[in-house]
């Protein structure tokens, strides 16, 4: 693969001292004791599974639990500690499953509740915990509560579980607020009464098919705590909390101030949210073994962000600042410093992630002129150099895996998959695309099903095609092809995760920056040093006794541009 050699040492840089890595059998034994470590989450490697696109077990073109269960050995051999499975519940799929109709049932497209229980058990037997998504800000418009609210009419107790409003103006014809949806457009939809006349409006911070629930209502609080218990009873090790900072709304429904102060936004980061998560933490802590709460918290204010990580609230939250930064040494170091400084006072570990099911894949993003990420900036036809992007993505993998805290990997990043940016317009499904009136390409490009084997689509994903088409040029990116190539990105990930597991200094713990030129990042984790060259010229390596791993071969003993290395330093 172009720019894809994972060097273990050039001729003039052969390892002089190397600790033996654990064999796969030894790793399995260590992984198979998951309940013995109450702090497992502080340095865990967690693999995000988007089940619709992971593996298809029944040949209908959609990934499912049967496919995921069949690929658990692949995840064990990759070396992950846990999987995070995005919503697998009954859903009309108006937003890829984040519009939940029933939190206690598996969508038939994915399988059954019994299969989910088997997956949790089988994964645990391989030393892999399971984290699931809970979506507490909204439900599907097909949820029994919302259907009851529509049937009951204005002023009913059923409507009090949501945010219904008669509307402004003489006849309620004016929208209640000018709040802007995260999916663009307004946040209110007007209902139609049984006689065909316009009715009340209801709030949805996302798509109209996702009505927001009212977290000041005791039924909502009780229901979601019961949902947590339902899944903890079935053995899940944690809950990823979708849109975690959006649940609580100002009951007065004011407009968003031009510059809201801390806690002043009418529907983001309200102070009352912390009572919700204290209640959830009490539920989690009532179970044996550590059941973790992981928040999706998009906040610029790092002090406010850290409040969610106090000892009686969430265990961890996603660090999106690092993911959104450009491929620039100063910017990345600043983000690392800010992140660690924010987590320090509350004693929580940081999380590191390069992508997810919402974000342009690193291989594509890092090959662009603007290597940062912002939802508002996504456009069709943005050029990218995939060779440059792959080289940087491989280096970024070593960088993130060496940072203190836990590591999240999105399915397919270990294969170096690019974003699929030429999907036929008629096949796009993401509401972000449609609500932008076709300007935003949406998120389908990072959700294309994985290639497992073979020379043509569906590349072993299943026997019956795939719900989104895979590119014709993915034969070299399949798992089977990369397993046969020791310089592949898959082998790079397997090597770095094996080293991370074997090195006591990696994962949770301290780090120390090392003085370097401006375009180079270097830091120490015990006697292991991570060096990343983000400059244009090859860089000298710090004094070391062993080159453990590099994302590309060294050049005459120097670290090439857009390359990272892990080194052992003298004792």
CATH architecture of one domain: Alpha-Beta Complex
The CATH homologous superfamily of one domain is called Oligo-1,6-glucosidase, Domain 2
* Radius of gyration (Å): 24 Å
Oligomer: single chain
| CATH top level class name of one domain | Alpha Beta
Global mean pLDDT: 92
- What count of helical segments does DSSP give? 15
In one word, what is the shape? globular
**Helix content range of the residues, please?**
10-25%
In order across it, which strands form the biggest sheet? 11-10-9-5-2-1-13-12
Give the structural class: alpha/beta
Short characterization:
Helices cover 25% and strands 14% of the residues.
Structural overview:
The chain is an alpha/beta fold and 571 residues long. Among the domains are: 144-203, Oligo-1,6-glucosidase, domain 2; 511-568, Sandwich (Immunoglobulin-like), CATH 2.60.40. Helices cover 25% and strands 14% of the residues. The chain is built from 15 helices and 18 strands. The strands form four sheets. Strands 11-10-9-5-2-1-13-12 form an eight-stranded parallel sheet. A five-stranded antiparallel sheet has the order 14-15-16-18-17, with helices on one face. Strand 7 (188-192) and strand 8 (198-203) form a beta hairpin. Helix 6 (218-232) runs parallel beside helix 7 and helix 12 (386-402) runs parallel beside helix 15. The radius of gyration is 24 Å and the shape is globular. The two termini are 36 Å apart. Residues 48-447 form the Glycosyl hydrolase family 13 catalytic domain.
What's the layout of helices and strands?
Layout: H1 24-31, E1 45-49, H2 65-70, H3 72-78, E2 82-85, E3 89-90, E4 102-106, H4 113-125, E5 129-134, H5 144-152, E6 164-165, E7 188-192, E8 198-203, H6 218-232, E9 238-241, H7 273-285, E10 292-295, H8 302-307, E11 316-317, H9 320-324, H10 329-343, E12 351-353, H11 362-365, H12 386-402, E13 406-410, H13 431-435, H14 479-483, H15 489-502, E14 512-513, E15 520-525, E16 528-533, E17 546-550, E18 563-568
Parallel strand pairs: 1-2, 1-13, 2-5, 5-9, 9-10, 10-11, 12-13
Antiparallel strand pairs: 3-4, 6-8, 7-8, 14-15, 15-16, 16-18, 17-18
Protein name: Glycoside hydrolase family 13 protein
GO molecular function, one term: alpha-amylase activity
Keywords: Hydrolase
